[in-house]
Amino acid sequence: MHDILNIAYSHYQKDIGQFMKSMCAKHHATHLNKPLSSASVCSQFSRGVYAIFGFYDKKSVNTITSFCGTLHVSFITPSFPLDGNQQFIIQMRPDIKGPLLSLIEYYKWDKFAYLYDSDRGLTTLQVVLDTAAERKWQVTAINVGNLKDEKKDEAYRSLFQDLENKKERRVILDCEQDKVKDIMEQVITIGRHVKGYHYIIANLGFIDGDLSKIQYGGANVSGFQIVDFEDPLVSKFDQRWEALEEKEYPGIPTSLTTPFPTSFPIVMTEAFRYLHKQQIEFTRRANNGDCLANPAVPWAQGVEIERALKQVRVEGLTGNIQFDQHGKRVNYSVNIMELKTNGPVKIGYWNEVDRMAVTKSDVFANDTTGMENKTVIVTTILEAPYVMLKKNADLFVDNERYEGYCVDLAAEIAKHCGFKYQLKIVSDGKYGARDAETKIWNGMVGELVYGKADIAVAPLTITLVREEVIDFSKPFMSLGISIMIKKPQKSKPGVFSFLDPLAYEIWMCIVFAYIGVSVVLFLVSRFSPYEWHTEEYEDGQIQTNESTNEFGIFNSLWFSLGAFMRQGCDISPRSLSGRIVGGVWWFFTLIIISSYTANLAAFLTVERMVSPIESAEDLAKQTEIAYGTLDSGSTKEFFRRSKIALFDKMWTYMRSAEPSVFVKTTAEGVLRVRKSKGKYAYLLESTMNEYIEQRKPCDTMKVGGNLDSKGYGIATPKGSSLRTPVNLAVLKLSEQGVLDKLKNKWWYDKGECGAKDSGSKEKTSALSLSNVAGVFYILVGGLGLAMLVALIEFCYKSRAEAKRMKMTFGDAMRNKARLSVTGSTGENGRVMTPDSIFLMPNTLHMGLRC
Length: 850
Hints:
28 helices, 41% helix
């Protein structure tokens, strides 16, 4: 108190004058905000003071008012105003009842919670409750003045949780500034400072409170300010206050009550001037009066001092200082304040004449004036390819240490919006989720909510729960949840892979069609007279005519096979019915062979990887392959909140799986996929999946389509002035194609696994022997079968000739072997036997004609 009064005396020394300097009190309280006790009042009175300046609380107020009333000494106080007509009490602090009720009516509240401190008295609460009864307001009054210090934080959190359960999101805080600060810290901790909540701070030092942590949360915060810092008198005093040296005035506070003590000297000066003008003489010696005397002897001139104080009319730091006949402030003005993202803003004022007058109903939230002189804190997360440390990062400082998609994007945004920025890696390495128990946000979302950063440029997914506490720009990248698995080994082509272009069923149908066409051709040839013709041959000396049909069953099979193989045959149907059969068979073989040839190239030159998982359905219906997500992020939240049966089934599995299938970072998830030998699938955003697929060792792949559709957005605190310019910058970059260029740069141009589509499950390659091995096997098998049949025919014919020629089987085989090697068995190169002579002229009509 001593330092504050000395500063005030020094500031007002020209106004106080020499007369007042001689009257200044030499005895004072030690602590500024400590209430006076009865002993302190008695001590000051015994020293012969003209008036006492100090504080009271609920416990000491009755004692102080009693002493002052009995001893006729004026007590000037900045403590909470008292009800009733108290003599010798001069109240420097204006009553807040009128401004508070007017503000409640302005916001049209009809249901709210009222948190009060019983140490301040219950006068304001009583007026609010009386008004509520008249206007049918629903008020929940809660006393927060009796909470123990060691348990107050827990009690505040429990209190606000109860209010949340009752849907009470409008709260009035009628407490001293220190307690308001403690309450607001817990409000921030449990996430009750976001959009949808509204707080009114019912004291007169709105600007004095530290609200920097809550101003970006999105909640509405209103209050009152008695000191107008735009007043020249206040500005001059404020400059002098800031220039004070710490050594000369250690521990000088700047709390709510500071302006009131500084007005004490000028109030006393005006009172003594009044007495001087009234020519009232007053003297007082230090040993004059004893408060402990029985009966107590009042000071005879105390009434004159009280009357003089009530006649004071002077301008101080708290505006017009004037008292009514009961010692209460009158004709004062209070500024109405609201907290915006750029700090406390005056929206109007209140006085006894005009009541509440709103001068500015809205503040341009998107005004970026002065932004070029401010360094914007950009929170982000180390996640390739969005933000990465350079290989030689130690050689650089600040933003130059990082590279990546979001680093380039942040530079483009800053260039379009015209501000300086500093990249800040989020401390906990998380994107942002709210704890189910404490309701506290972590990660980048938490840094925006709690005012630690101005903007988040990162792969931050736009979700409903995040949109409730922060603002997002238009998406700068579209994506969805996808499945990452370890790339399976390439399937080795089978021996008969040349059959793959057509399904097994088709091959079987072709075989049956071949047999069926051959039989039909045989039958129509037998029944059609046009397929029969007469041939002449000599049987010894007799000439014989015999009707023949070329389409026996074997020739029919041979004709069908030749047509199917596109090789043709020496014989053709003569009848119309036979030609119809041949025509439709040719058409059939044309389509089948063309289709086979078209597919053959693709099947033989494409390497296939057989994936055990092709979709989310495949994951959900099996248990051999585990699957999980990032432990804190939008992907996990998607499954947790999903009402779709498939995703709900997957979530039930993931949350109960042992060991846990959740990972702390994406890098950990990718590593788990690579080391799992195909037994773990990781669910993540498709963009990250595509990027990792392009990185060495190129052993992961994306399977199936996206499970949902969403986007990455640039986040700002609720109501931030950066929201609109950032949003416009994103749209402009999208229209100019800059966003696509950035993605191609960091995904594919810097890829390590080949072309953009090299990660697909099929890749064209040169034809290898293994692809056509079956064809060679069939060729070798056919040749072997032909030689076996030839051997059987050779033996059969040799045995028949041995019987006819009446020779041994061995001789017959030697003759046949000689014929096969030399082409003859006799000296003249011919084999002359009765059988051969008889058979030679008629050889043609006995063999196949094709």
